[in-house]
Design goal:
The chain is mainly alpha-helical. Strands 1-3-2 form a three-stranded antiparallel β-sheet. The longest helix is centred in the middle third of the chain and has 28 residues. It is globular. The two termini are about 35 Å apart.
């Protein structure tokens, strides 16, 4: 089964900094109410409730069944993967939303890596856990598509529910980017 293709509304929903913070918090703590998220993020419960509903409309978060009492609602990530259409199939509006989202993600990644570097000495054995590779490969477009699918399959193989995670495991942030060398003639 292939991942659903994100539409303009989903891209706009994702390109919101508060919603990105909510998604990140749910990655860290797994399940939370809007009150818990509001406390952690320093915003109102109305703000977190509203943004959780928007994220749920787009299938990005879901209610935890049988967890809440009364009006209390618990939320978690839906574990749904999304794909964005290739550039040539994006409307100008979708392209703008995806560019904004990519800017948010890149800024967050750089800030997160800087925090890791600042705290690295205090992480014990985890301070050495930074597999890093820079390389280049020569591929045609079909091979690049296969390479990316293989990467996603490998990533999914190691993604597990919290109750299936081995003792001593930590969240490891993974990023993948591949692009043609702009200096090479086509």
């Amino acid at each position: 089964m292939t991942d659903p293709i994100a539409d303009l509304a989903t891209a706009k929903a994702l390109a919101n900094p508060v919603r990105q913070r909510i998604l990140r918090e749910l990655e860290i703590i797994d399940e939370a109410t809007s009150t818990v998220l509001a406390d952690r993020l320093g915003i109102t419960t109305g703000g977190t409730s509203y943004n959780l509903r928007i994220l749920a409309q787009h299938g990005l978060v879901e209610e935890v069944p049988d967890r809440g009492q009364g009006r209390e609602r618990w939320w978690r990530l839906s574990r749904q993967s999304l794909r964005f259409p290739v550039l040539s199939r994006q409307s100008p509006e979708l392209r703008s939303a995806i560019e904004k989202l990519n800017e948010l993600w890149l800024a967050e990644d750089l800030e997160t890596f800087a925090r890791f570097q600042a705290r690295r000495e205090r992480l014990g054995v985890w301070s050495d856990a930074v597999p890093y590779s820079r390389g280049s490969i020569r591929l045609d477009l079909g091979e690049l598509e296969n390479f990316f699918e293989d990467y996603l399959a490998l990533l999914k193989r190691y993604q597990r529910a919290p109750d299936e995670t081995p003792r001593g495991a930590r969240t490891v942030l993974t990023r993948f980017v591949a692009f043609p060398d702009p200096e090479e003639e086509a």
